[in-house]
C-alpha cells in the first residue's frame, strides 16, 4: 500500500523512455546527450521494479569503471529516486548504507550493490558476487564508454542460471554519452540487428524537466562548437575527423615510480570547470598517464587535501597554469614543488606537436582523461569546411594538464618553468 500510494503521487516520467522501461531484452543500450534524463529514468525504473513484490528475488549490480565514482553518480541517483517515490516513508521501504555502498528493499528483500572494473582485483570481486536471497538479475553500467569490451563480457557472464521467479529476466543496461564513432559499443550494439538487443536514443530536447538555463547553454555550445554540439547536445556519435591526438592506447600498466625514467604532475586549475591533475611518467621516449584527480567546485585547499589523501609526492615537480599565481603559491606553501608553465605565442600548438611525436599510454582508472582525449578536436571553419590549428576550448581540462606535464621534457628543466 505504501508503494502504490507514493509512486503514483511523486514520480515523474519522460514519455520517451516508456519503451525503455517496458523492454525485457537482454541488452538495453541507451545512448544520449548530456541532460537527456536517461540516468534519472533508469534509476527510477530500477527502484520501482525492485520495490515491487512481483519482482521478488531480483538484485541489481551497478557498475562504473572506477568504483568510487558511484558514490556521487549512480548511488546518488538511486537514493534520489527512492526519496521522490516514497517521501517520508522511504526509511520504511529501503535500508541505505554508505559504507559499503548498498541498498536493500525492506518489502521484497531485493538488493543493490556497487562495483568498479578498473583493475584485475575489482574484476575478480565482480566474479564472486552472491546474494543471500534471489540472484543477480540486472546490471546497470553507467558511463559505459569508460569500460573495455572485455569488462562488459565479464559482467554479461554473471547473468546465467535458472531464475526463481517467472516474472524475472536477465538484463544488462548501458547508459552513456556517445564519443568516437570508432568506439566498440557502436559496432557491438548499434551496427547490428539482433533480437536480444534494444537500443535507444535521447537528447536534452526530449527531457521535459530540463531548465531554460541549460537550453541556453546548449545553444551557446551549438554556436561555438557545432561538432561538439552534435555529440553533447544531440547525442550523436563523434566524427572521426579533427581529432587532435590518436596516438594513444588505454591499457593496464605498473604505475609505481621506479618503472619510469621521470615523473611529473600537470595541473589545470578550475572550479566551475574541472580542476585536473595528472600524474605522468616518461619511459623510453613514451608517455604514461598513470593517475588523475578531476574534481568540480573545490577550492584550492580542498584540492590540496585530495592530493595529500591520494599520496601525491612533494618531491615531484608540478607544472601548473601560470594564470593562477595565488593558487600556485598555496601549493608551494603546502610543500609541493609547484611552478607556472611559460605561455608564449604558439606554445599550445608546440605542446600538441610534441605530444603527437610520442606514444601515449593511459591507465584505465583515468576515466576523465580518456573521455577528453576521445573528443579533443581542432576547431572547424564552417565556411571552408576545414580544420584550423586551434583546439576547441571545451571539456579540455585534463588535456591542458597533460600539455603542462610535458614541459620539463619538451623544453628542458632549465627553461620550462618560471622560478
Automatic annotation (TrEMBL):
Domain named Phage terminase large subunit C-terminal: residues: 268-407
Residue ranges of domain Phage terminase large subunit N-terminal in the record: 25-236
Higher taxonomy: Bacteria, Bacillati, Bacillota, Bacilli, Bacillales
Stored NCBIfam families: phage_term_2 (TIGR01547)
Pfam families in the cross-refs: Terminase_3, Terminase_3C
Protein's recorded name: PBSX family phage terminase large subunit
Top-level taxon: Bacteria
Originating species: Geobacillus icigianus
Coiled-coil blocks: none
Amino acid at each position: 500500500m505504501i508503494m502504490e500510494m507514493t509512486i503514483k503521487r511523486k514520480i515523474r516520467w519522460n514519455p520517451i523512455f516508456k519503451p525503455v522501461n517496458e523492454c525485457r531484452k537482454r541488452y538495453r543500450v541507451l545512448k544520449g546527450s548530456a541532460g537527456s534524463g536517461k540516468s534519472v529514468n533508469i534509476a527510477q525504473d530500477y527502484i520501482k521494479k525492485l520495490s515491487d513484490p512481483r519482482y521478488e528475488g531480483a538484485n541489481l549490480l551497478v557498475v562504473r569503471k572506477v568504483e568510487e565514482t558511484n558514490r556521487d553518480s549512480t548511488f546518488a541517483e538511486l537514493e534520489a529516486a527512492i526519496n521522490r517515490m516514497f517521501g517520508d516513508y522511504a526509511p520504511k521501504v529501503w535500508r541505505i548504507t554508505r559504507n559499503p555502498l548498498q541498498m536493500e528493499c525492506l518489502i521484497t528483500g531485493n538488493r543493490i550493490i556497487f562495483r568498479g572494473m578498473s583493475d584485475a582485483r575489482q574484476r575478480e570481486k565482480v566474479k564472486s558476487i552472491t546474494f543471500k536471497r534471489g540472484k543477480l538479475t540486472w546490471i546497470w553500467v553507467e558511463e559505459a564508454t569508460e569500460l573495455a569490451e572485455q569488462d562488459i563480457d565479464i559482467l554479461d557472464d554473471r547473468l546465467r542460471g535458472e531464475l526463481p521467479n517467472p516474472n524475472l529476466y536477465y538484463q544488462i543496461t548501458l547508459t552513456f554519452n556517445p564519443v568516437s564513432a570508432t568506439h566498440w559499443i557502436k559496432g557491438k550494439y548499434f551496427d547490428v540487428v539482433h533480437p536480444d538487443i534494444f537500443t535507444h536514443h535521447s537528447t536534452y530536447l526530449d527531457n521535459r524537466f530540463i531548465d531554460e538555463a541549460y537550453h541556453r547553454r546548449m545553444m551557446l555550445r551549438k554556436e561555438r562548437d557545432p561538432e561538439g554540439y552534435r555529440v553533447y547536445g544531440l547525442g550523436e556519435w563523434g566524427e572521426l575527423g579533427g581529432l587532435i591526438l590518436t596516438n594513444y592506447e588505454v591499457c593496464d600498466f605498473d604505475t609505481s615510480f621506479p618503472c619510469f625514467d621521470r615523473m611529473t604532475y600537470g595541473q589545470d586549475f578550475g572550479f566551475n570547470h574541472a580542476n585536473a591533475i595528472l600524474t605522468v611518467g616518461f619511459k623510453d621516449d613514451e608517455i604514461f598517464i598513470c593517475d588523475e584527480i578531476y574534481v568540480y567546485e573545490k577550492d584550492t585547499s580542498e584540492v590540496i587535501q585530495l592530493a595529500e589523501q591520494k599520496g601525491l609526492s612533494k618531491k615531484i615537480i608540478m607544472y601548473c597554469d601560470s594564470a593562477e599565481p595565488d593558487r600556485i603559491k598555496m601549493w608551494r606553501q603546502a610543500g609541493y614543488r609547484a611552478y607556472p608553465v611559460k605561455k608564449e605565442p604558439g606554445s599550445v600548438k608546440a605542446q600538441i606537436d610534441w605530444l603527437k611525436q610520442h606514444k601515449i599510454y593511459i591507465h584505465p582508472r583515468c576515466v576523465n582523461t580518456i573521455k577528453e582525449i576521445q573528443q579533443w578536436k581542432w576547431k572547424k571553419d564552417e565556411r571552408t569546411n576545414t580544420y584550423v590549428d586551434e583546439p576547441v576550448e571545451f571539456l579540455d581540462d585534463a588535456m591542458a594538464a597533460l600539455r603542462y606535464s610535458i614541459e620539463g621534457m619538451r623544453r628542458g628543466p632549465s627553461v620550462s618553468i618560471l622560478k
